[in-house]
Design the sequence.
């Protein structure tokens, strides 16, 4: 039972190359996943790697290092584009989980109900991966290959989440059966850029309504040019073929389809309001 | 370079001290802090980040130690509750605030709550309620309903001392509270000796399965286990149970497991052997299982003597319900159901045992030490006196810790091995195998005359009692007595049936079936009021029982039936709330306000059965007043209440009384902590003991009844008419003065129609709920609960409020979110209990109508608090939206579906 705690990316990649490693950051998914069992024999802790934690902007792109926690996101000075991400950060589990859990870990865990995924999809996030073959960038929509499945090859490590800068304001809504510490029934992330009070570009993604979170390209197109007063009607009329919810202990599929539509309209309107995150 | 710790050790600063602890760096930090560093104030409630009990500060930031790798704390600062309170003024003040507000009941969540709060308070700013909830929202509490925790954190700037003295009626701070807020309290898994071997239970992975063991001796020898236990190793009877005649549960299943999670074997060994244990040699043959009463009659019989899998039935009849309903001006009826409800205490079951000569000592978190003792004696084939139960602090019970869980395993292992053995259930083990609230399927009809008087009610309830009886017979008996609610119901017929299925046993949970029947009855009352066009509060006020009215069992109370007073005190709040809701709803948005009220009642103590409590008290030769108090305090406050009663009867301040126990070697049987009986029954025993000792002392000094007693400097001082005399106490073995007093409530048996006097005391309550429904999403936001409770006489109003608020929180969970699905919701992220953000402002109104039997007029209270809550919530949802929820919980999807169904019906009606 060894915990490797490299302080550089090179040594982390070198350790990872040996195989048999479970990557650990905040531990908020790794340990619950043990279900009271023994920890894996080899854990690779990336939380102490120099340069892997923090949020910075460079060359038209925002970079969220792989060891960046949700609390780091909440505390970061970020433009309204990230308002949805900040709201999502506050909805992750609890303060305890936000203090430990990382944005990148939420993506790698690839839960259908991952709080961070819809809003990052709406932000057109890319996942930066480094491994034996060097560095590559994968769109988040491709990175999450299915429930609990991600497009990572052996020896590869997520090193950052990259978000293109641009106009727009974000919003996020999570629906659950209680206030804190709740797995969502449905959630919506939206990023809306407006021009003269009308939607210039809408980016909307839904989570917990299918095996993976999905961008809603049809409704995004339909919303172009819409005023706030049009949103409810356009969303009500949309097809939403991306929704493929199931019945589970949290809600019925029928309800998820119905509630997701309400959340979509509300999240879009919320993203068009005056800035709301302090 | 690497940040790795030296292999096998972690160096960290714990509460200011630099320490090195032996540990694997991949171990959970919570385990290392507890086992390696002795920080037993770090509580393990779930091992999954779901409950927050293990919260510590890591470099100042609250994290769950259970999901933190120990190696990640290498070289860092870790702070825990005990260290914070010992070293920090902020935490010390917070601890006092927790005591002043009774923010700790059982105390198991208190470390997580206080550590999180310290992180917030350290910033120096005065937090808002919303900030407190955001910061503490990740810590679950099942006792308090959170409101007093919020109040304490908001009041943490004050350095005022808690109230330490006070007689009957005074809000004295918990006498056993300081260890809970200082991080020194010891719960079930905190007291095992370090050398204890570890036990793990092997459990059925199927709802029903036969099984065969492989080579157990070979497995034991190959793996280095010390012992393997199966049914073949039970020296006494492999059978236990809480109700005479219904002892049907084996310690280890024989041949066939009847529910998922049932024990079939146990392995005992050193911790590292257990941790590395390969698959246990057992082969399973899954059999067809039946999980619901609907299939029970055709399913295989779980117990050979219980045809159709019916465990037992209950029946109460009075007048002629059928005839009265046929003639009633208005009759409403409905079908209602509730699911399994998990107790959800934050402390999983835990026990340790050691053999002392020919006796066995068991430390455990329990609500019923003497029942545990007698059941263990039967299993071990020992005399009851050979078993000693030493209850630890109990991290929540609510009924489930009445039954044996971990105790027989550790007792048997320690008995055989002669070495101490420990066992702490995992969260999933706890949820999968402990008893539950009975799922209910209820059909009820209620009729009223044209003036709005109830004329009759008929009730048919089926209760899923699971694989074993546990407290199922109690539920079956109690429900028909209570299903009328606290209302005059001249014609009545109620039947209940307890049915076995292949699920975890349903047993005792705060209310013994009455919360379920209230869901049906109180919702039908609202339907009747609507039919009559009557105000819902007025309708209840008109029909509620008054002194002199017969209950449905024909029992008449000449005093103390205070439900009318409960409804009366709600009236101004009711008028205000209705007006507020009307104003809000006039805005016509998708948010709809609703207001509703529900009543409830509950008979204190066993149903028509003897259930005495005994209290012993003695004065040592050195003049110390010792109270042997065996009524287990599971957070509700019996240590404080019983002491207040005893001190009042004796005529001394509570600070002069030293508590001993509970411990079956030292404290006489005060019965089980259950059925809202401790304040009433043990309280009466304490009152009698205090009075008897007072008489003895006054006789000794030959002074009058008005003399005052004080214990001072190794003697008793008696003062009368301004003269004080010292009475030296004789030096002798044992106590210089001693009393033992018992109390058993007067009840009468029920006849074949359920007529009789089942309880000496009923407590009553009425609660009003204000809420808001998002009609587009079906989500419910509670705004306020106003709760009027007739407690006869509040021995300690602070503790009364704590019971009310905690009961309401559990009622909210029952109404809105809780349902245990066997095999599916065996953790605290799929099984949801209310968080700090789900319990609204609660206004408690204490009504004191006195009682003919209760000590100083006090009644029990524990169960009453949640009985009206769920129906009041459901009635308020209906008031807000017109949608009525018949099948609980009222999750967003069900509420939305009910709203849409009602809309569809309205559309059809207008077509």
Sequence:
């Amino acid at each position: 039972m060894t915990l490797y705690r490299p302080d550089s990316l090179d040594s982390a990649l070198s350790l990872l190359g040996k195989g048999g490693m479970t990557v650990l950051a905040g531990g908020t998914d790794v340990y619950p996943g043990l279900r009271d069992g023994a920890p894996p024999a080899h854990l690779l802790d990336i939380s102490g790697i120099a340069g892997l934690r923090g949020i910075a902007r460079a060359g038209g792109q925002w970079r969220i290092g792989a060891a960046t926690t949700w609390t780091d996101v909440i505390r970061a000075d970020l433009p309204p584009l990230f308002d949805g991400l900040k709201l999502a950060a506050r909805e992750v589990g609890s303060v305890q989980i936000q203090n430990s859990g990382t944005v990148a870990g939420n993506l790698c865990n690839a839960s259908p109900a991952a709080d961070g995924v819809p809003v990052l999809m709406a932000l057109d996030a890319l996942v930066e991966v480094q491994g034996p073959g060097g560095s590559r960038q994968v769109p988040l929509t491709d990175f999450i290959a299915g429930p609990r499945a991600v497009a990572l090859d052996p020896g590869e490590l997520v090193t950052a989440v990259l978000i293109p800068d641009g106009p727009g304001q974000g919003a996020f809504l999570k629906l659950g059966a209680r206030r804190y510490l709740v797995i969502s029934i449905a959630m919506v992330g939206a990023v809306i850029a407006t021009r003269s009070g009308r939607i210039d570009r809408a980016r909307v993604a839904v989570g917990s309504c299918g095996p993976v979170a999905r961008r809603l390209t049809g409704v995004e197109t339909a919303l172009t040019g819409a005023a706030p007063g049009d949103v409810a009607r356009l969303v009500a009329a949309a097809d939403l073929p991306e929704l493929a919810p199931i019945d589970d202990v949290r809600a019925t599929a029928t309800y998820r389809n119905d509630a997701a539509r309400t959340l979509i309209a509300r999240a879009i309107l919320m993203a068009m309001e005056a800035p709301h995150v302090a | 370079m690497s940040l790795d710790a030296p292999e096998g050790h972690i160096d960290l600063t714990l509460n200011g001290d630099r320490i090195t602890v032996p540990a694997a760096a991949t171990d959970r930090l919570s385990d290392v802090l507890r086992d390696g560093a002795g920080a037993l104030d770090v509580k393990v409630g779930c091992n999954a980040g779901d409950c927050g009990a293990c919260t510590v500060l890591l470099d100042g930031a609250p994290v769950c130690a259970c999901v933190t790798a120990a190696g990640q704390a290498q070289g860092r600062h870790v702070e825990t509750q005990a260290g914070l309170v010992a070293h920090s003024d902020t935490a010390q003040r917070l601890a006092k605030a927790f005591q002043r507000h009774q923010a700790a009941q059982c105390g198991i969540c208190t470390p997580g709550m206080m550590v999180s709060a310290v992180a917030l308070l350290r910033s120096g700013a005065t937090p808002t309620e919303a900030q407190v909830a955001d910061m503490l929202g990740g810590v679950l509490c099942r006792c308090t309903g959170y409101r007093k925790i919020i109040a304490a954190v908001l009041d943490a700037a004050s350095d005022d001392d808690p109230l330490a003295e006070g007689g009957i009626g005074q809000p004295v701070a918990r006498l056993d509270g300081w260890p809970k807020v200082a991080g020194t309290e010891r719960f079930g898994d905190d007291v095992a000796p370090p050398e204890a071997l570890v036990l793990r239970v092997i459990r059925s992975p199927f709802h029903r399965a036969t099984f065969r063991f492989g080579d157990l001796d070979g497995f034991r020898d190959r793996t280095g286990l010390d012992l393997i236990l199966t049914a073949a190793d039970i020296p006494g009877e492999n059978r236990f149970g809480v109700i005479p005649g219904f002892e049907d549960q084996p310690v280890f299943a024989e041949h066939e497991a009847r529910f998922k999670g049932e024990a079939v074997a146990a392995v005992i060994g050193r911790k590292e052997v257990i941790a590395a244990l390969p698959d246990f040699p057992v082969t399973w043959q899954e059999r067809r299982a039946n999980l619901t009463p609907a299939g029970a009659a055709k399913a295989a019989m779980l117990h050979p003597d219980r045809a159709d899998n019916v465990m037992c039935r209950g029946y109460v009849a009075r007048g002629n319900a059928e005839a009265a309903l046929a003639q009633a001006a208005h009759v409403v009826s409905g079908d209602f159901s509730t699911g399994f409800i998990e107790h959800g205490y934050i402390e999983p079951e835990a026990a340790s045992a050691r053999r002392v000569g020919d006796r066995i000592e068991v430390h455990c978190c329990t609500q019923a030490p003497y029942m545990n003792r007698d059941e263990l004696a039967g299993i071990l084939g020992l005399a009851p006196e050979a078993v000693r139960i030493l209850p630890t602090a109990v991290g929540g019970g609510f009924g489930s810790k009445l039954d044996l869980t971990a105790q027989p395993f550790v007792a048997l292992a320690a008995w055989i091995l002669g070495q101490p053995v420990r066992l702490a259930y995992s969260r999933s083990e706890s949820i999968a195998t402990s008893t539950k609230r009975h799922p209910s399927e209820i059909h009820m009809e209620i009729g009223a005359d044209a003036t709005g008087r109830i004329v009759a009610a008929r009730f048919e309830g089926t209760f899923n009692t699971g694989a074993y009886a546990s407290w199922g017979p109690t539920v079956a008996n109690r429900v028909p007595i209570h299903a009328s609610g606290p209302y005059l119901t001249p014609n009545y017929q109620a039947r209940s049936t307890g049915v076995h299925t292949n699920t975890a046993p349903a047993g005792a949970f705060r209310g013994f079936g009455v919360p379920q029947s209230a869901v049906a009855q109180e919702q039908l009352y609202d339907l009747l009021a609507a039919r009559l066009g009557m105000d819902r509060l007025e309708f209840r006020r008109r029909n509620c029982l008054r002194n002199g009215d017969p209950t449905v069992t024909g029992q008449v109370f000449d005093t103390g039936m205070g439900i009318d007073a409960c409804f009366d005190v709600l009236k101004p709040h009711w008028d205000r709330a209705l007006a507020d809701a009307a104003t809000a709803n006039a805005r016509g948005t998708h948010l709809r306000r609703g207001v509703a009220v529900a009543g409830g009642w509950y008979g204190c103590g066993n149903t028509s059965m003897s259930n005495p409590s005994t209290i012993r008290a003695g004065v040592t030769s050195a003049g110390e007043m010792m109270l042997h108090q065996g009524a287990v305090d599971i957070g509700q406050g019996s240590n404080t209440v019983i002491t207040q009663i005893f001190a009042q009867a004796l005529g001394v301040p509570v600070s002069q009384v030293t508590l001993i126990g509970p411990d079956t070697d030292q404290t006489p049987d005060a019965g089980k902590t259950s059925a809202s009986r401790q304040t009433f029954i043990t309280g009466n025993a304490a009152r009698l003991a205090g009075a008897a000792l007072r008489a003895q002392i006054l006789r000794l000094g030959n002074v009058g009844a008005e003399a005052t007693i004080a214990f001072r400097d190794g003697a008793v001082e008696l003062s009368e008419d301004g003269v004080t005399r010292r009475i030296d106490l004789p030096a002798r073995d044992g106590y210089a003065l001693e009393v033992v007093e018992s109390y058993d409530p007067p009840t009468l048996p029920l006849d074949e129609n359920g007529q009789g006097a089942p309880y000496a005391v009923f407590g009553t309550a009425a609660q009003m709920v204000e809420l808001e429904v998002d009609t587009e999403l079906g989500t419910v936001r509670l705004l306020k609960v106003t709760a009027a409770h007739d407690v006869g006489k509040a021995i300690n109003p602070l503790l009364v409020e704590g019971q009310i608020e905690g009961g309401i929180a559990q009622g909210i969970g029952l109404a809105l979110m809780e349902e245990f699905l066997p095999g599916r919701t065996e953790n605290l992220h799929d099984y949801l209990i209310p968080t700090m953000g789900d319990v609204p402002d609660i206004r408690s109104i204490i009504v004191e109508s006195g009682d003919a039997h209760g000590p100083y007029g006090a009644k029990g209270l524990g169960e009453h608090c949640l009985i009206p809550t769920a129906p009041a919530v459901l009635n308020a949802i209906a008031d807000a939206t017109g949608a009525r929820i018949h099948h609980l919980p009222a999750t967003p999807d069900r509420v939305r579906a009910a709203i849409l169904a009602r809309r569809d019906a309205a559309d059809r009606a207008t077509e």
In short: Chain B has a mean pLDDT of 97. Chain B touches chain A through 67 residues (CB under 8 Å). The longest strand of chain B covers residues 454-466. Chain B has 22 helices and 31 strands.
